[in-house]
Amino acid sequence: MLKEIKGLHHVTSMAADAQENSDFFTKTLGLRRVKKTVNFDAPDVYHLYYGDEHGTPGSVMTYFPFPHITKGKPGVGEVGETTFAVPKGATGFWKERLVEHGVTGLAQADRFGETRLMFDGPDGDGFALVEVDDDERAPWTGNGVGSAEGIHGFHGASMRLRNDGGTDELLKFMGYEKVDTDGDITRYAIDGGNGADVIDVDLKPDAADAHQGAGSVHHIAFAVEDRAAQLNVRKALIDTGYQVTPVIDRDYFWAIYFRTPGGVLFEVATNEPGFDRDEDPAHLGEALKLPSQHEPLRDRLEKHLSPIVD
């Protein structure tokens, strides 16, 4: 069993409109945009990152806004819901705020003894706010969200799968323990993680396959402290039979990727070097930052990419 994984690092999804996406995460959810860059593999598309003050691993939701992308079709083989941790008693505040901002899909429920408020993102993305007691992570406040209500970071994520198909074995190998079951949903958690410690597996044996598009999660990333830990994880996964990519430099972290038995794309990302490597911490997410290989394209990209008005 691996010991290096410390919970989630980030979750990356796809969107249809960069401005709408930025407004939702900063003005509705009150998160900070910590980086405005481009998709390293398709630089004519933004890559936007939202999180806490520093973009701490375990707090960062990221998006590729593809203009004219078709809407995703929910199904099995994907992350169906991303959950954020909020303080105890914050659900009433968030319910009122989300209604005021015209957010759809609101529903309140209890799961595993936790109060959760489900809602849709602007492209139909599945989200929930989960009340968590004694979360030591500092929330990012602003845009009308105070410390008594602010999002601390991720609580976790839920994967929709047709069957277990080896995912139980994989999660346990990655250091997660099965902690509870609620109907068709099985909860796994990592001990001593970064706060973004929960993975729920929602079995839907009769559901159709998901088709990715706007509102779909592209991949889910797990955090390791540094490159040495990442190399240990990579070797262990390969030795177990997984096809794992070489280490890829993403400027703000190093990444490896592999496909799970259930079809979900997993990433393992380093906590280092962080989002302030090329930007003053007081001004994260303001300027368009480009990786060195795309810097020669700056003039063309700045003309092509639609401006984001804060």
UniProtKB/TrEMBL annotation:
Residues 7-132, 150-271 form the VOC domain. InterPro entries: cNMP-bd_dom (IPR000595), Extradiol_RC_dioxygenase (IPR052537), Glyas_Bleomycin-R_OHBP_Dase (IPR029068), Glyas_Fos-R_dOase_dom (IPR004360), VOC_core (IPR037523). Residues 77-122 form the Cyclic nucleotide-binding domain. It comes from the Bacteria. GO terms for molecular function: dioxygenase activity. Keywords: Dioxygenase, Oxidoreductase. Gene3D superfamilies: 2,3-Dihydroxybiphenyl 1,2-Dioxygenase, domain 1 (3.10.180.10). PANTHER family: RING-CLEAVING DIOXYGENASE MHQE-RELATED. This is Dioxygenase. It comes from Litoreibacter roseus.
